[in-house]
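Weekly puzzle thread! Below is a chain. First person to post its structure in token form gets bragging rights.
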Amino acid sequence: MDTGHQEVSIILHIVEGRVNIKSAKDFEKTLAMFPNRPELHKVYADFLYKQKSFVLALHEYGRAAALFIEAGMPLQAIGAKIKEWKISAASEEELQILHKALRQSGSSATILEKFAARLAFDEAAALFRSMGALTLSSGKEVVGAGQPEEALYFVLSGKLDEVVPGPPRGKRGTEKKSGRQFVVNDFFGNVFPLDSGRNAEKTITSRTKVDLLKIPKAALLGACEKFPGITEFLQNLYEHAGDIAQEAQLNIRESSRQQLVIPVVVEINPDKQKKDQTALQGMSSDISLGGVLFKANTHAQHLNLDALVGEKAKVLVGTPDDGVLLGIRGRLAWWKQGEAEEKSTVFLGIQFDKLPASLHGLLIIFANAIGAAREN
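Winning reply:
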């Protein structure tokens, strides 16, 4: 159903900065629900780095990179390792692991990753060492029209908008029009051929919080002088820029369609008398054996949710209209104000009590069945 396609993973809201988790305790609760989601470990590592908890950040960046590799996302693994290496310098073994991950990405690799996989180890290591990793909040200018093109950027997460200056419009200045949007596994920066001294024709600004890999043009020049294979990599990249952009947009649409939107009812203090209970309806596409993240209805905005954090909860997956409900007990771990579809809304995290082994498979099968049924 169409409304399902408009729903976005709440984990994606966290990654793109629409839901901000501001305490280590809340991060730990969220990771207990979703221990194998690399993007959450990456966001937590960024949080720890800002808090100057460098030893813990080092561990989380390493964990994120390992999980990205397991998930077949070597580009994102490189981004996590680059941030880790700001704390502790890269070892030869770590460089080899990343190069091997690129080589083994196989048929699931993006066009960009397939080109990178052709690099010999020395060539790939030279690129890794020249890279920087950036995390920018929404509304930040990355490239300004008229400014020198000084770097090549790869998009690891988030979205960016391109704005093309239009013709002058009298005293009101310059009229601008929207260009394309850059998404995950896309790239931008018109730096090739490297001996061209171009200025940017367009402004590129972050629409959401974004993670980027950045390679300065000067570093590319030095690497290409030593390793001709990097020149071939860049040539392939720019010759197939249109195909890479089309693939990136298609992958984003496919990912959105695969989100299974599940109706959820949360009963807080379910064992108390009716007048002391709170029932919240909402929708979720993030559910695991550890818990559920969901977007609550507008009723939640009128509650004192701070007072309810830590209280017992019962999660009902499905609705009476679907003819079936699965009830799972846990606690309200946290709540956050955020944005969805440009509106302020409330997101809640429910951490499940330890599930019996007999329920492990049932929960995932049930949730997938409910979500798939609603899409049809």
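Puzzle host: Confirmed. Bonus trivia for everyone else. The mean pLDDT is 86.
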